[in-house]
């Protein structure tokens, strides 16, 4: 097993015997399912892994607003526009809770955002794909937020207290997002024209595989999984979560009257799970390297927003200073 971990670049997990007394006490606390809180001692690797994962998660929530924002002005009805705006605002809120959770680990928000802007920090691959039709808004709510929920429901039990508590509210809101997305697609499939039904199928064809990529590389190719599982930051592996997502999503897909662009997708009675085809990992790693259809546009938009919002932040600081002076006077 260790040889295999080294080959895949995986971080080696120390046995209890190899740990310092502090590390052992920490691991025993985790094994006893006691949450780690900001003031508790923690190994530097645990802190750095969480800063990496939570900051990337926060960046994903914020960048994830962009593909949907593209459709606010073109939502087909006032009700749909309001729902979409509420959903996008929820995503902004998720980003804020997550940046706050990250700050409890001693990380600096501006520095982490700068890493996003200079390409050092990742965000979810899925948000580098364009939203070409109104059906994509339904598909993102249903498939993309659906995949996010499968991952995040488990993260409610993650070992770091502030992260797990942030996840509880986020999951509630994501459930609403998933339902509004599915409702958009159901309406198009039930009451739409042939062209609109085709639009739904086309959207599912484009987002199906990228949604499966959201769970990350296969377990054997995931350098962080072994250690993150030992620390109970991750409670289920990338492949386990991907399988859970497929198993719960295929019946919903069939209920819609649509198909997945995967000829190998079929129920396996013996395994009690759906079998599915191989993901195009070349595409996944290309997107991670910054070469997806929208990577450059997404980062340029985020940088512009930070620059153009500078005066708001300055005004808020000036106002807070003034309040402080008044209180002191
Ligand atoms: N998109 C971009 N990068 C990814 C993705 C993805 N879909 N999947 C894996 N990666 C990156 C990892 O961040 C890691 O890179 P790094 O070491 O430079 O940080 C590398 O690929 C190898 O992957 P793993 O070893 O499997 O990484 P990890 O253990 O962090 O697992 C996962 C990846 C499952 C995404 C985990 O970080 C996680 O659960 N994050 C929290 C959930 C989240 O971020 N969701 C965002 C999308 S949902 C939404 O925003 C609506």
From TrEMBL:
Species this chain originates from: Marinobacter lutaoensis
GO MF: phenylacetyl-CoA 1,2-epoxidase activity
PANTHER family (UniProt xref): 1,2-PHENYLACETYL-COA EPOXIDASE, SUBUNIT A, PHENYLACETIC ACID DEGRADATION PROTEIN PAA
Protein name: 1,2-phenylacetyl-CoA epoxidase subunit A
InterPro entries assigned: Aromatic_CoA_ox/epox (IPR052703), Ferritin-like (IPR012347), Ferritin-like_SF (IPR009078), PaaA (IPR011881), PaaA_PaaC (IPR007814)
One Pfam family per UniProt: PaaA_PaaC
GO cellular component: cytosol
Signal peptide: none
Top-level taxon of origin: Bacteria
GO biological process terms held by the UniProt record: phenylacetate catabolic process
